[in-house]
Specification:
CATH class of the largest domain: Alpha Beta
Strand content: 25-35%
Oligomer: single chain
Radius of gyration: 23 Å
CATH superfamily of the largest domain: Hsp33 domain
CATH architecture of the largest domain: 3-Layer(bab) Sandwich
Largest sheet: 6 strands, antiparallel
Helix content: 25-40%
Structural class: alpha+beta
Order of helices and strands: EEHHEEEHHEEHEEHHHEEEHHEEEH
CATH topology of the largest domain: Hsp33 domain
Number of strands: 15
Shape: globular
């Protein structure tokens, strides 16, 4: 797909679309790097297991795509965690990506406020999130310190928050497009909905520091009349972000549109190089043993308060799996005589 690189095979873009994949690509002529994420069964498994209201599911789907795009850039075994906390109808989103391929996610929301937003035709992402913050955490393991970046949520979308994060924290010119939708398929018992999600991330990474220099951030309480600092954008980045702006939701979601064809459509005039596809899977790390260990760490009084109808029931917030324990399974001292 790139006729500008000596020794690199040139071929047409793959016609067959492959779901639950990440496609890294590069446009060397413009110093651009990026990734295209396409999620089918993985997104559907996560979103369908919760039966969230559609606007909440779509918002969580966007968060999943964004997390996969960013987490898949890790060069080590670790976790990338995206979490929002805000005052909107959707109070919290949590997406946990474990490199190289496993993702899980959940949301907390006020059902009445979400229903009110839908009724008022105000269920767009920015109004569902409201104001608060978005945290991106890189966890490199128990023996390494965590890195966390924070960006405010100010009534905008997750795309807006991602752009703000990279402008302030990473200072890398970045553009992100996210898309989530329901696909209806015919089945014996009637049509069934399936969730699909997709996204593309583009970054300008020139070798010269001067070419990536950006204007100073808003000076805040600078004296009146202070002239804003302006740095002309590099022409290569202007071209790149103009091209990514032409991507529509259908191109990111169409099961018949391969990621390679999308990359080719955008950048074939400059030459685009694609790398090996990476897989993504919906996978929760919860287990009966893990839940039992957690319960054993609680004080006895807390465990006593959890007993209902003679059982302790724990439901995983990420995957909705339910684990049921008799009290004596957690602590043998709770066993009845003769058991």
């Amino acid at each position: 797909m790139n006729d500008l690189q000596i020794g690199i095979p040139i071929r047409p873009p793959a016609a067959e679309a492959v779901d639950d994949t990440i496609l890294p690509f590069a446009v060397e002529a413009l110093d651009l790097r990026g990734r295209i994420v396409r999620l089918g069964a993985a997104a559907d498994a996560i979103l369908s297991s919760h039966d969230y209201p559609p606007p909440v599911a779509r918002l969580l789907g966007e968060a999943i795509v964004l997390t996969v795009m960013l987490g898949s850039a890790l060069k080590f075994d670790g976790r990338f965690i995206l979490q929002t906390q805000s005052d909107g109808p959707v109070r919290m989103l949590v997406v946990d990506f474990t490199s190289p391929s496993k993702v899980r996610a959940c949301a907390r929301f006020d059902a009445d406020r979400v229903a009110e937003a839908v009724a008022a035709a105000a269920a767009e992402p920015g109004k569902l999130l409201g104001h608060g913050h978005l945290a991106m955490t890189i966890d490199r393991g128990p023996e390494m310190s965590r890195y966390q970046g924070l960006v405010p949520l100010e009534g905008g979308s997750l795309e807006d928050a991602a752009h703000e994060y990279f402008a302030r924290s990473e200072q890398i010119p970045t553009r992100v497009r996210l898309a989530v939708a329901e696909e209806f398929r015919a089945a014996r018992n009637g049509a069934r909905r399936h969730w699909r999600a997709g996204g593309i991330l583009l970054q300008f990474l020139p070798k010269s520091i001067e070419r990536v220099r950006q204007a100073d951030l808003d000076p805040g309480d600078a004296p009146p009349g202070t002239v804003p600092h302006v740095v002309p954008e590099d022409e290569a980045w202007v071209e790149g972000r103009s091209l990514i702006a032409t991507v529509d939701d259908l191109e990111l979601l169409d099961p018949a549109m391969s990621s390679e064809r999308l990359a080719y459509r955008l950048f074939h005039e400059r030459g685009v190089r694609v790398f090996r596809l990476a897989a993504v899977e919906a996978h929760c790390s919860c287990s009966r043993d893990g839940v039992e260990t957690m319960l054993r760490s609680f004080p006895q009084t807390d465990r006593d308060d959890m007993v209902e109808n003679g059982k302790i029931t724990v439901t995983c917030e990420f995957c909705s799996s339910t684990y049921v324990f008799a009290p004596h399974e957690i602590d043998p001292r709770d066993a009845l005589p003769g058991t």
